[in-house]
Amino acid sequence: MSNQLRLGGITANSVVDGPGLRTVVFLQGCPRRCPGCHNQELLDAGGGREVTVEEALKEITATISPITQGITFSGGDPLMQPEAVWRLADRLKKEFPGLEIWLYTGYKYEEVKDLPVLDLVDVLVDGPFEQDKKDLALVFRGSANQRLIDIPKSRQAGMVVEWQPPVPAIRPD
């Protein structure tokens, strides 16, 4: 199992790649070349820098604060490196069990549902970006064909269950 990954970058305190403040781990490499891709600098599988899972974990840990709500794997496509991402996600789940893990991929859930890394993912944003379905009003995704899939609920139901944002508690006056 690979202990190396090709990292495009890490961004702390993102609010666009999942709910709340999140650390986003950008993985390098994507074969799709979707027209309109907003991360074109991450398409080249030889770009970015090669790091060990331990090095990436150290960098990610430095970005996590008491108000960090989650980790998001984006790209490129993180599932181009499923074993290394699994190792990293496994370590993150063990060290920060309260953080939610999201993963963006151009693959459809049905194509990748048996990958072990998905056992560690809370929400999968699946499907390629489609320029003709681009919609800036969509939450946490770029085109209408992409789904926000609640992985634990989907596994329990034996079918795709889309993620729903939590309903805020209403305080009585």
From TrEMBL:
It comes from the Bacteria. Keywords: 4Fe-4S, Iron, Iron-sulfur, Metal-binding, Oxidoreductase, S-adenosyl-L-methionine. InterPro entries: Aldolase_TIM (IPR013785), NrdG (IPR012837), Organic_radical-activating (IPR034457), Radical_activat_CS (IPR001989), rSAM (IPR007197), rSAM_sf (IPR058240). Its EC number is 1.97.1.-. Belongs to the organic radical-activating enzymes family. Pfam families: Fer4_12 (PF13353). It is an enzyme of class 1 (oxidoreductase). One of its GO terms (molecular function) is metal ion binding. This is Anaerobic ribonucleoside-triphosphate reductase-activating protein. Signal peptide: none annotated.
